[in-house]
């Protein structure tokens, strides 16, 4: 060839670059496709869980802003407000003591059942599409994510067949307690980190176990020693998972810790050699995890219990929130075979935690006897019995009647932290425990060649069928006033200022909190729905004291009567507005007894100004 002949780069540099780019992209695409093929079964399981979660919550779609969970709209209103406040972290306007409710004292977010980590993570969705969309995504995502996380733990840690793992994951993610808690309790359904915590604890134990003594070439026996690098990484990972879970749902972490403690003790009793070998390293690893977690959680936990507006006790009565013993063998009203009459056995539709039904309890008991892996089964059974017994509360209730028989919870009731948990929620730990027993039995059956290969999965399927969940009931919700959605509120209250909606929000009727939610918590509200130190002696209480003016307005909204207003009421109205730090009082057309409220407010604050669909008074 002539030396003057053009080379490919000289002749067509653009084509050369395109060819090089295609060559570079091809291996990446090939690797991605290979990864998809390799994990196609896991991806299929994730898709099935996501579709099921979407179907169960489909009542909130396609317009979450116009729909609400019919069985617990009050808590949904609260959690959407939480999400709106958390989203302000993206705007650089966030503090653990928020001034956007209960003006002027504010609300301690750590002392409430907030989901701060999720709220911050989904802040872009909240700011772009609104808190109701984020709520709907989390309601479905928590179900699917929990199911998938347990599926992966069962399959990869217990090394069981995927079919068995999928059954167990489905029960953990969509069991009666999970479906019930999905009625607005996002902090209770966000359990997808619990399998990660369990995996890290197991990994820590394996790293701490030096293994049985082995003879060397000289015939002497010696242990190989713990894997210190793996032990430290497990402890660090455990600290990270625990820290994250605190900012998602502390009660779930508390229940997981109690369950794992009981299982660890039971397993140690069943395998004393393992306990003897691994205990020093395991305890050291836990100490490292606790120390690392404390670096992150020390201040937030102090703020929760001893900071401003913090509470150090629980506000719920354990006797009232105790599980009825007969509810254990009853089917949940939210299951395909359940009955609405069963609802009388619990405190409300968000607490069907124990409604497993007798078929599942019977099959789980048989599986525990047959499943094998005796030490793990023994630990599961022990933990299940303990958590189930604690759910009965301080006094056993049977069929709605108190029996005067003390429950095991009476032994621990009143202890710090423990009194903040509802006894009946201890039963939520039974879902993964029962699921583990079923998974072990189904996996053993699938590996066998006898009649059990068909009979065991069939029995498990028959037991699970009656508790298959039904879609959550939803209803339409009133539209937020155009005064808020159109941004007209800025004409009478500055950003971050205090707007007084009439009537004011309360724990039983928190609806005006939707105004702040729709405005991305751009203004504060007096009073409201939250947990604060307003009980006797500064103990925890729901909501705060009503000021005289808010009590007067609430009475007008409830009865429609127009009270006599004198100089004292007007002076009190001014004092209350000053106490709240209010800039504006607003009454919208959809308020109950709006005419009577408007006449009362005119006597208290003078002539109003009409802005969009609201009457407003500058104070």
TrEMBL record:
Provide the transmembrane region boundaries. Answer: 41-61, 109-129, 135-153, 231-248, 254-270, 282-302, 355-371, 376-393, 424-443, 455-472
Which domain of life does this protein belong to?
Bacteria
Q: Provide this UniProt record's keywords sorted from A to Z.
A: Membrane, Transmembrane, Transmembrane helix
Name the chain's protein: Dolichyl-phosphate beta-glucosyltransferase
Q: Species name for this entry?
A: Micromonospora noduli
